[in-house]
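MODEL INPUT / OUTPUT PAIR
PAIR INDEX: 1
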Amino acid sequence: MGINISDSTYCTLFDSNYIDKGLVMLRSLRKHCNAVIYVLAMDDRCAEILLKENIKDTHIIRLEEFMDDELMACKNNRSHGEFCWSCTASLILYIFDKYSEKICTYIDADLYFYSNPNILVSELLESGKSVQIIKHNFKRGLDSHLQEKLSGTYCVQFNTFINNAYSKEILEEWRKLTLDDSSIDNEECFGDQKYLDNWPVKYKTHINIIQNMGAGVAPWNLERYSLVEGEKTGVCVDKHYEIPIIFYHFHNVTNIDKNHVNIHIYERTLFLDKKLIQKIYLPYLRKINNTKNYLEEKYSFYPLILEHPVLKKNIENPMIKLQRINAVYYILTVLVRAKRKLVRAIAWNRNIVEI
């Protein structure tokens, strides 16, 4: 089965609480890419708004048509946020089975695209492999080593699958694991994410890892980048080479109130390029704010997330769980947690942005 870049499709999922982020992401993707996009609407309000918005070549999947018995059992046993984490593999399989797409990339709703991400899909096609994943690319150091142990080497944010037997085997296994009753609360799994850590070993001949450092720029690796002034948003990685940003992951952007946002980036380190942060965050936050106001005016709905729906439970607590591994990690995590607490206190005002 011949596959080329024109066969590229994308999928995502979000609910009405994330619809401002989802709409901004979809519009940024559509600006640079003409690919078909599938959106799993995780509640009825989200579905109704998206259907009325009628974004070009964007297909809305209602939750009730997506559900099966296993997903329903999972939904009944988890919080809404945790259930969303459990649907990624099932969504890609659903798109392959129902729509017969040749290739599909899962993308998170809180991404923003600065250029055409098909360049990343081309990496997979050129590799001759079936599945492509992306590293967190934590900056080297003690904090990063511990964070990787907690969150995984790879990030579920931009993951591409070719519709073949190899991908489906991996997806079926991933789906089974994420639907297991114990998976979400298991510190070894970190939601749907840490399962990917063994893929390059177990499925070595079928997995490609994205090499382009312009993909997946995020709060957890922003220390590696500095701003390159110019007409387009560009960055310098580790002070060695310049690249354009393909997408940024606006992880854990939450509201204090309608006029103030916590960007949660200085909690990891205070030593960041302030000009880069302004260049990236301020335009995005204005787009989010404009979208919120648009949704309120047109649909009488104003999404306002004051706390990440699953972050506190599934990210902060594992730092405590990690201490149980052995004495060395106990000491290291105590030191890192003390450092983070101090940095978080110092960083509070820096993280708050008025819009």
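PAIR INDEX: 2
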Amino acid sequence: MSREQSIQTVRSVYEMFNNKDMNGLMSLVTDDFELIDMALGMTWRGKAGWKEWLEAWAISLPDAKTRVDSLAADGDLIFTEHTGMGTHTGPLQTPGGVIPPTGKAIKLQFAEAFTMRNDKIRQMKAYWDSATLMRQLGLMA
């Protein structure tokens, strides 16, 4: 895989999420894909796991959009920082249960590390601050 193709694959994650293209997003990951969400302390596997993680955001924030703020590549690793924005108008699934819609706007900073294999994403590690989310939803001071 070329560096340019790796970068385009990762950029496609954000573009497809913004366009609500779940089928396209499924095509970007390997069958043995693994997603590790550091803030939640949880791991999802395979395309079904990828879809479940993405849909939790898409359902809870139907107007969600992402903006890539920076991107760096080193061999088969791609690193991004992005801003995620949306309005919490749907139920948010969390390890502690469902958070009902608050109607509040959120803006979160994410860092993500992607490991590539054969033009697809083999692993993604997502880093974000859950306390910032809870404060913006009005659930903690």
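PAIR 2 NOTE: The first helix runs from residue 3 to 18.
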